[in-house]
Amino acid sequence: MYRFVIFAVALYGVSATVYFKEDFADDGWKSRWIQSKHSGKELGEFKWTAGKFYGDAEKDKGIQTSEDARFYALSSKFADSPLNTKDKDLVVQFSVKHEQNIDCGGGYVKVFDCDLDQADMHGETPYKLMFGPDICGPGTKKVHVIFNYKEKNLLINKEIRCKDDVYTHLYRLVVKPDNTYKVLIDGEVVEKGDLESDWSFLPPKTIKDPEAKKPEDWDDKPKIDDPEDKKPDDWEQPEFIPDPEATKPEDWDDEMDGEWEPPQINNPAYKGEWKPKQIENPNYKGPWVHPEIPNPEYKPDTELYHRGEICAVGFDLWQVKSGTIFDNVLIADNEKEADEAVEDLLKNRLPAEKKMKEEQDAEEEKNRKAEEDAKKDEEDESKKDDDSSLPTDDDDVEDDENKVEHTEL
C-alpha cells in the first residue's frame, strides 16, 4: 500500500523517520509524480505495469520506460516537511528491473532540494546526489554514486559493479554523519568506506614540496655496467656474409648481367651488439622520494555527509532500449524499512519472478520447437508432392511397350 507521509517509529530507542515512500500500488501515482515539459528534448512516457513476469500482478506494479531512444524526466516532491540531513543518516533505496535485458541506459535516481522546478527538470538541473545502476555495452556496468559539493558533481573514485540480469534488484545508499557510506544491492554490502577518501571533496592533505629537488649526486640506478668487463677481440662480426656454397650460373654474362655476386646469408658467427655485464651499483641510494609538506589549501570538512535539505526525488535518464521498471522508492533516516523491503524481495518477489520467467522461457522453447517441427513436416509433404509428379517405373515400361508395338506395325 502506498504511503507518502512522514512517520516515525521507535527502533531500539532511536527515532526513525520515513520521509518518502512510493510503491506505485495504485494508479493515483500519476497525481504524485510530475512529468517534465522541458523544451528541446523528446521525453518518453512511463507506464504503470508489473511487466512480463512477476510475483504479484498488482503488488509488483511499478513505472516502466515505454519508448526506445528517449530521455525520461519524472519527479515527485515530499508531501510534508523536507529531510534535513544534519546529524542524520540518509538512506536512499529503490528497485530496478531491466526486464528488457537493457543494452544501454540509466537506471538511477536523483535527489533534489526544495528549489526543484519539476515541470522543467532536465539533465542540467542541479541535484544533491545521483545514485543507481548505469549500463552501456559490455564495458559500462556500474553503480553511480555522485554527490554535488560546492556546485560540482563528484563521482566516486571506485568502480562498483551493478546487476545486469532481467530481474528486480534493490539498490541502497547509506550516508552517515561520521562521514562514512555504504552501498548495498539486495541487502548485501558491495562497497563502503570514507567519504573524504573515496571522493575528491577536498584538496589533498599534503603536496610535494615545491622547494625540494633531487640532489645532483643522487644515484638511483640499482645496477651499472661492469667496468672490468671488456669486449672480446673476435666479437665484431658482420651480420650477413656471402653464401660460400653459391656458384655463378653457367649462363651468367658479365657484360649483359653485370659482375656476379653471391647472395647474402646470415653469419653464424654474428653475436649482435656487445653490452657489458651488469653489477650491483655500490653508490645506489634507492629511488628518490619527493618530500611532502602540508597543503595550505586543505581545510577539513566534518560535514561532507550533509546534503542540506532534501525535498524531491526523480528519474532523469536516457535509455536506448526501454522496458526498465522502477519501484519501491524510499528515502529515510534509518534502514529499518529498507531492510524489510529487501526481506520481501528475497523471500517472495525474486523467487516468483524467476519461476514465472523460467516457465515462460520453457513455453517459448516448446512453441519454437513445435513451429520448427511443423515447418519440417510441411517441407516433407511438399517434397512428396514434387516426387509424385516424376515418371515412375511403370510409366517407363508402358512407354517401352508402346515403342515395340509401333515398331512392329
TrEMBL record:
Feature: compositional bias, Acidic residues: 251-260, 392-402
- The protein, known as: Calreticulin
**Protein family according to the UniProt entry:** Belongs to the calreticulin family.
Record keywords = Calcium, Chaperone, Disulfide bond, Endoplasmic reticulum, Lectin, Metal-binding, Repeat, Signal, Zinc
For this protein, the record's Gene3D superfamilies field holds:
2.60.120.200, Calreticulin/calnexin, P domain
**SUPFAM superfamilies the record matches:** Concanavalin A-like lectins/glucanases, P-domain of calnexin/calreticulin
Q: Which domain of life is it from?
A: Eukaryota
Described by its record, this protein's role is as follows: Molecular calcium-binding chaperone promoting folding, oligomeric assembly and quality control in the ER via the calreticulin/calnexin cycle. This lectin may interact transiently with almost all of the monoglucosylated glycoproteins that are synthesized in the ER.
**Basic and acidic residues compositional bias: what residue ranges?**
206-234, 344-387
PANTHER family recorded: CALRETICULIN, CALRETICULIN AND CALNEXIN
Give me any GO biological process, just one. Answer: protein folding
